[in-house]
Structure formats: C-alpha cells, structure tokens
Request: fold
Amino acid sequence: MSEENVNIMRQGYDAFNRGDIDTVMGLMDPNIEWQEPDVEGLPDRGTHHGSEAVANNVFGSVAEHWDEFQAVAEEFLDAGDHVIVLGHFHLRGKATGTTIDAPYAHVWKLREGKVVHHRNYVDTATFLQSLG
Reply:
C-alpha cells in the first residue's frame, strides 16, 4: 500500500501545480486534519478540520495572496501509511511582487487511499517575505 500512497501524493502535487484543485480535493478524506505553522502573519495559519475548511482557508488564501504559487516536490519518502515530501515553494506575493523559494517538508498520512492528515513544515521567515 505504501508505494500506492507515494503515487497518490505525486498525483496530488502534479494536480496542484497545474491548478487542478478539484483533483487535489478528491484525494482528501472529508474529515482531513490539515496543520499549517501557527505563525503570526501567515494567512492560513493553524489547524484546519475538514476538506471544506482546507479548500476555503488554505487553498483560498493562495489566490488571494500570491500571483505565483508552486509546491515543487523534490523527494518522496515512503513511510508506510505516511509519505514525507521534501521540496520548496516557489511564490510571488501579490502585495510585494517579491519572488521567493522556501523549503518545506510535508508529512502526509493516508488511510484507504485518502489523505487524512497533513502537516506543513516550512521556512516561515522566507515565506513571510513574499507577503511583506
């Protein structure tokens, strides 16, 4: 099942980066728990419960705050029901026009082919630079 989980996550990153959010949302369990760094100034900070909250609070903030936003996955690490993805965000803030690359580590938990938990570890200082 773990190789299948890695393939699911590859599909998710590919879909996200081509703007196919419907496909990304289809990979999530409706009761997903999505954790972002709880850092002042981040528009999607904190924990979001349920796919609707992720769509509104996380993905909705992308279009609102950034003109460019790519989650470039560089390495997928198979950990059974968890997949760790190492990469970097490439983004350009709407307010600042600043383009940055911020490294991340994403930890995903899957159950029966659906994402049930996500945790984002990101260089928040660099990320905040794009917001101003």
User: Anything to note?
Assistant: The chain has a mean pLDDT of 94. Residues 64 and 131 are 11 Å apart (CA to CA). The radius of gyration is 14 Å. Helices lie at 2-17, 21-26, 51-65, 124-129.
